[in-house]
Each structure stands twice: as structure tokens, then as C-alpha cells.
Amino acid sequence: MAATTRKKVLARPLDKPTDPWQISEKSTEETIDRIKGDCCYKGRIGARVEPYGIYWLEVKSVRPEDLVIVENLPEMGRTSGIKKIEAVLESDMIFPIVRGADISRWKATSSIYAVIVNKSTRKEDIPEEKWMKINLPKTYQYLFNFKEKLLERENHWKFFSREITSSREIKPKNLETDWKYFRSAGKNRKGQFVYNCTNVPFYAMFNVGDYTFSPYKLVWSHMSNDLKAAVVSNISTPYGNKTIIPTDTTSIIPFTNKKEAHFVCAILNSSPARAFIKSFSSAGRGFGAPSILEHIGIPKFEPQNTLHATLSDLSMEAHKTIRTNNENMMIEIEEKIDRLTEKMWKIKA
Predict the structure, then answer these.
(1) SS (H, E, C) the chain
(2) How is the chain split into domains, by residue range?
């Protein structure tokens, strides 16, 4: 006992008994109750760009006719056996990406690129192989180099396949007319042969939707010990202006309105919000998951609301100031944000 420091805290489920438990001191109970509430925004996981060693790229140089010389990064991620190659690709599907490790408070930097093939997981948003061969032949050939590895992805079969059963073993040639790809999934309890079958292209990606390509995205890492959020949009690349794509180590909120994105960013980066989130979201891989928004009372942005507009402006100012390394100015901006969020939630000083 002499070697420890102890304090009494409250422990209670956020709402329902099955919710995460919230740990707080008695003195902060009223503050937590004021922050807790319904959120007008939905969080999502960033794009699942896997295996990293295939989809993640280093842009080496740019050629005429929208062609880019790239090199894949097999040292990234945990998938072994990926060969390193240099290739010339069309620029259409090459986007700058942001990982959780690239995000700090008020700032996100992009140094890696990735091939982002589909606009969503809807069938009509996944380009067919025939279309790719005609319209983006170099990109198709690059991905075709890794066809076997891409078909080893468990998520490909989880998201895109249909399960069929047969009383007898089926040979590949018997499925070619109906299914482009299939794999054996063993036997079921009845002793029937089970197969996963799909016609979805081998390069299809997961956790991608219209929201992935929103003009503005609020992003933060969900593998951390504190919430550090920033707003990202389009950036200039060696081959033109492109949308930044957050990857699956980030949580995101998509926006079409810049001011609204910065309003929510200011709130999530405020001291009251961060303390509230840390009271129930454990540090580490699960910290800051999109589900944290289910418990924090963030109102819908109202442009005519002076408090909302000021928070938005302060976030934009913070994004500019953080790049100047002016610590005193940053402290002043963040203190203003804290005071305004306290006022918004009616927290007593």
C-alpha cells in the first residue's frame, strides 16, 4: 500500500448495461453527464487498403499522358511473399492516403499513395475486369501480377462470395460457366462439400463507399491513447489535384461542407471532449473507434449560430497555425475552443 497511489472513482456503463464502462472521478460526474448524449454525426472506418504491400505505392516520377511510375511497398503490413516491382500505371486510381500514424492534432500529412480501385462495395461501383483491360490496362496488369495473393484475402470471400453445397466434389471446370472464382471451404455437418463462389473481380476492395471520396473528411487515429483529429480534403500531387483517402487505421466523418467539418473537429479536439472519450475508450488498438460518436452529444452544425461558426473558424485557424510552430498562438486558440465547448455543453467553470 505504501508503494501505491489510490483514488476513488465511479464506474458505470455509458447507457445500457452492455455498453462500455465509464471511469470517472466524482468531481467530474456532472460534466460527463452534460457531454453525454446523442451525436448528429456518424463515424466510419477508413478504406481497407490491403494487403498494404500490394496497394500501397511510392510514386517515383510522372510521365506524359497521365502515367505514373510507381513502386509497391512489400515491407508494409504483415502479408509475406509479395514481390517488389516497379510499374507504370495510369494515374486515375492512384490516391494519396493518410494512416493513423500520419495524424496529429490539427494536422494530417500524406507521404504514401495507394491504388483505390472501387468507389464502393456495390456491384456497379467495382470496375469489371473487361473494363479495366480496355480502359486502364496498365493498372489491371499491375494488379494481375498479384492475383493469387489478392484471392487469398479472407475478406474477399467474406464480403463478396456466395456459399454453395454439393453432395459430390466439384472440379473447377464445372464452375467456370457460372462463377469466375471459387474455393473449397471444407465440408458441413451433413458431409456435403462447401464452396465459396464469386464473380467479383480479384482486386475488389473493402470498407469503401461514397463517404470515402467526400470532399472533406474529419480523421483521427483509432490506435492511440488520446484523440487527435484533423480535417483533410484534396491536395496537390505530382500528377494533379487528388482526394486524400484515409485508411483503415483511422476513423472518419465525411462532409461536403468545410465549415461543418471544422466545427466538429474543434469539438473533438477540445479538452472536455477528449477527457470524456478517454473515460470509456481504452488506450491502444481500439481507442477512438467510430462508435465513440454514439455517446458524445455533438449538435448539428448551424451556420447562423455564432458559437458554432466561431468554433469552425478557430479550427481552421488552428490548422494554419500548427504549421508555423507558433506554440503560444496554438495555446491561445485551444483555450478559446475549450471555453466555447464548455459553454456549448453548459459546463460550469
Answers:
(1) CCCCCCCCCEEEECCCCCCCEEEECHHHHHHHHHHECCCCCCCEECEECCCHHHHEEEEEEEECCCEEEEEECCCCCCCCCCCCCEEEEEHHHEEEEECHHHEECCEECCCEEEECCCCCCCHHHCCCHHHHHHHCHHHHHHHHCCHHHHHCCHHHHHHHCEEEEECCCCCHHHCCCCCCEEEEEEECCCCCEEEEEECCCCCCCECCCHHHHCCEEEEEECCECCCCEEEECEEEECCEEEECEEECCEEEEEECCHHHHHHHHHHHCCHHHHHHHHCCCCCECCCCCHHHHHCECCCCCCCCCHHHHHHHHHHHHHHHHHHHCCHHHHHHHHHHHHHHHHHHCCCCC
(2) 162-198
pLDDT tens for each residue of 79-104: 889 999 999 999 999 999 999 999 99
pTM: 0.89
Per-10-residue mean pLDDT, the chain, length 349: 86 79 70 86 94 96 93 91 95 96 95 95 94 97 96 92 85 65 87 90 94 97 91 94 95 97 98 89 80 92 97 98 95 96 86
Grid coordinates representing 151?
Answer: 484471392
